[in-house]
Amino acid sequence: MKVYSADGELISQFGEKRRIPLSHDEIPQALIDALLATEDSRFYYHYGVDPIGVVRAAFDSIVLRKRARGASTITMQFARNAFLTLDRTLIRKVKEIYIALHIEQLLTKDEILTLYFNKTFFGNRAYGVGAAAQVYYGKDLNDLTLAQIATIAGLPKAPSNYNPLRYPEKSKQRRNTVLSRMLIVGAIDQETYDDAIAQPVTAKQHGAKITSYAPYVAEDVRKKMVEKYGIERAYTEGFNVYTTIDSKAQNAAQKAVKDNIHNYDERHGYRGPVSYLWRESEIVYQAPTNEEASVTETAAIEDSIGEAADSLFSENDFTAFDDAGDYKPSEDLSWSFEQINDHLNTLRDYDDLVPAIVTNLTDKTAYVQLRSGIIEVLDWDNLKWARPYISDNLQGPAPKIVAEIIQSGALIWLRKNQDDSYRLSQIPDVSGAFIAIDPTNGDIKASVGGYYFGNNQFDRINQAKRQIGSNIKPFVYSAALANGYTLASLVNDAPINKWDNKLGTAWRPKNSPPTYGGPTRVRRGLAQSKNVMSVRLMRSVGVSKTINHMAKFGFNKSDLPRNESLSLGSAALTPISVVTAMSVFANGGYLVGNQVIDRVEDSNGNVLFKNSKVVAGYVAPEPKEPTYLTDSVETTTEEEANYIMPAPRVISAANSFLIADAMNDTIWGGGSWKNGTGWNGTAWKAQSLRRRDLSGKTGTTNDAIDTWFTGFNSQITATSWLGFDAPGRPLGSVQYNSNLSDKQTYGGESGAKSALPTWMAFMKEILPSIPVSYREIPEGIISVRIDADTGLLSRKTDYTSQWEYFIKGTEPTKYADSNSSMRLDQNKNQIKEDDELF
Hints:
alpha+beta, Penicillin binding protein transpeptidase fold, CATH 2.40.50.140, six-stranded mixed sheet, six-stranded antiparallel sheet, 33 strands, elongated, cell wall biogenesis/degradation, cell inner membrane, PCB_OB, penicillin binding
């Protein structure tokens, strides 16, 4: 079974058997000659059975009491391989003869040969000569030399014993036997024979060439195929599964996730080498354990480290090259060049990380040895980030010289930069995930379930339920708009202190950061992710009503806590459910679901299965009964069916438009910076993408245990998550690193700092191919000028007013009084605070 992207790139291959079916015309004559000369030189002259061979086999079995052997024609071998066991008994031989005679009556000789070449086992999971050519030589059959063809032709007799990968000498002997038989029967001349037997064994292990890396997608597809067809059919029938994945988007997502994970990991500090294979000298450094260490203490530690390094090392100690410019190991190096190389050859790469051993140092460079004796130089720019990791909330002082980071003998991990230089790295502790879908039909365009599938197959996209924090707020605000609120309604942005009679304590949700602006418009509350405003909106609408509204987006009600903490994102949800739900705002109010498999074809290209899709805004040519999102249909090659179904509308077009427009301010903010009233949304950094058609929402849970960002336009919706797999471990905070530029990320981790960068890096790669598409204003939406402070109508046209969208009939009817301040009870949508303590 092969898994492909939508644009035909190979994602993965599964199954015990590898098959590449060929027609008779695609099989080289030299291979036919080699097989006939070796296995059945009278193939075209008998009727499936060689009488002389059969008599000899019967005599051996009955008279001499030996196992029946030999006499198997190509037709008989095919009969045995296709229909019988491999038991060497007389009864099996009789069955073999009977089936062979029947096959000869049904098929031509060329058809029998073609089946034999396609069905016979050639070792290393290769069934058929096409697969064998790829497995052993990585070539198409027609590109093989005569020596390589003879090697393959000799395999059916004993695929394991003559395997050129395991037993090259035995394989060579068998190959020469085949060539000798070809010479005897006249298939080749003496010169050709001499040239072929002089060739060395060139077989090497070759697998399917993966051209689009998406291991978590491949595993998801594998599970779905096994569930649908059973493990035997899924693994052995040569299915070609075409997914909805876009290879360019997938590659961009993969890189964005890994880069962001490494960026987080680096800013939290270096945890040190994997081990030391030897030590030439040692600096004793006791890291501070008090997280409240003062700046003065940190500076003192930094100075002491520098002094210690200066006293232990001099420039001459780190000489890596002689006067002629040739590399030479340090004189007191404990391991030789060969020992280092031998040790490195025992180590595997960790995804993109490669092992290396430090051999020499200077103040600002490190010389390292990689596999095959390659010597690389790590310059200071690729080392200076590595201040000591102390805890998730505390890092040690910035290093001044390389010796404060690593020393000779250190076994370290390296990561390759875009310019092919190397950077000091380490295996990350943190995890991340990313998914992007087409909001119009739910096609998954990219999906990354973690950092490295080879180490951890847990798919965080489909399997990890994590609290989503403020990513829940668009759904809370959508419920509010569906229950009488507008984007201009004022909600009190002030602390909440609610007594809980059951717990006997007060619930005090706070904004993050804990700043409050008093009466604030709903639009700004969503864009700036005001926690207390979200709580007040849910309280006004009601918990049950809010949950019922959220269920329209595809969320399972059982995943939504029935209390006000839901308004702050206490629900634990999977990234795939979040991105699917958020797509409702991107596509105008429709629930489209999601799918990763587009169609399944057999090995001949016949479509066996095609996924039906529900499409936002699609109008079916004929009325149809409502369909479930998981409906699919079996097809045959003769059928031409329409697999497009209309998606169900779950919220109004107006509601979807208003929330998406407010989420645009999460990126672009509002007000007038020129006149001192400007404000940023929580994802203002995404302005660097220079796309006004983007909307989004950050998400950060308590103590930054989980961080999220979901953003979209009408053509792509994507969700990013970053956090630790270990439950309850906060992402922590970072102190300023004096070795890095002012553009570095520091302070407490959050959705904007930890998850947003992945989304931005992905969008930077794919947006150039996606035209700008502004939201269409739905019917029933009007725009009026309002006062920026009160949300009431305004006659002014300066910075104190702005245009706002309303569902017709919900717009304000009163004008703001410029001579008096707004009172809370003047706005019809202001929440009462009777049950709160201030």
